[in-house]
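Structure in, sequence out. Go:
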């Protein structure tokens, strides 16, 4: 696909939605890197909003207050070879936003309609040539409803808990598998039952269960789908 005359609105979007621990972040980053596309980690915006709210003493139940924090969010994403560094108000926030505590707070503020509305335009601004890989929970159902390829990535709750435990151990953090499983199940329930943009596949999404798949297998499959639909050149 030539992007000579391509505008942001016309740039193709691959949406990757699904529950926490399904591999969305890693898969999205690797697909974007392979294709040279833009990357949107929408979950990071909600985590950063929750973190900033706490930093400024705004209660997570204060919908108007948290929405104002979201609108004024001072964040910079710095693309690096292995990952993306995130600065919040000039301070390093890459690691702290991935803690279970911040993740739980993010799930709570993501249920607030005013917060979701405040972050909507910011997320859509990431749509730039040659294309965008958008990772989240409502990318295909709300943010990019016209995306030509929508994926709902999932895995069993047990497998997602094991992946999270391995991730934490690699970071030097010990965590109980049973407690991680309970947290994942509670977050799933909250995300699926919220009144605004509940977690679910878009009607035209392809559901891909990654429980028994390797990361390279998933990346290859998504790249193949993009190529088959003429959205990206063969790699």
């Amino acid at each position: 696909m030539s992007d000579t005359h391509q505008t942001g609105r016309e740039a193709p979007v691959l949406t990757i939605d699904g529950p926490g621990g399904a591999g969305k972040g890693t898969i999205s980053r690797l697909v974007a890197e392979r294709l040279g596309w833009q990357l949107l980690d929408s979950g990071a915006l909600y985590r950063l909003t929750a973190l900033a709210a706490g930093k400024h003493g705004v209660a997570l139940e204060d919908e108007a207050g948290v929405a104002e924090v979201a609108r004024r969010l001072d964040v910079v994403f710095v693309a690096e070879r292995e990952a993306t560094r995130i600065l919040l108000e000039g301070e390093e926030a890459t690691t702290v936003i991935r803690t279970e505590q911040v993740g739980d707070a993010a799930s709570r503020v993501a249920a607030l309609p005013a917060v979701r509305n405040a972050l909507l335009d910011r997320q859509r601004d990431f749509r730039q040539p040659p294309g965008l890989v958008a990772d989240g929970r409502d990318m295909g159902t709300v943010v990019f409803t016209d995306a030509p390829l929508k994926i709902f990535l999932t895995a069993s709750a047990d497998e997602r808990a094991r992946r999270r435990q391995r991730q934490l151990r690699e970071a030097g953090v010990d965590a109980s598998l049973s407690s991680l499983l309970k947290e994942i199940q509670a977050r799933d329930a909250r995300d699926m039952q919220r009144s605004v943009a509940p977690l679910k596949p878009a009607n035209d999404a392809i559901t891909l269960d990654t429980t028994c798949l390797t990361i390279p297998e998933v990346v290859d499959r998504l790249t193949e789908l993009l190529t088959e639909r003429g959205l990206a050149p063969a790699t």
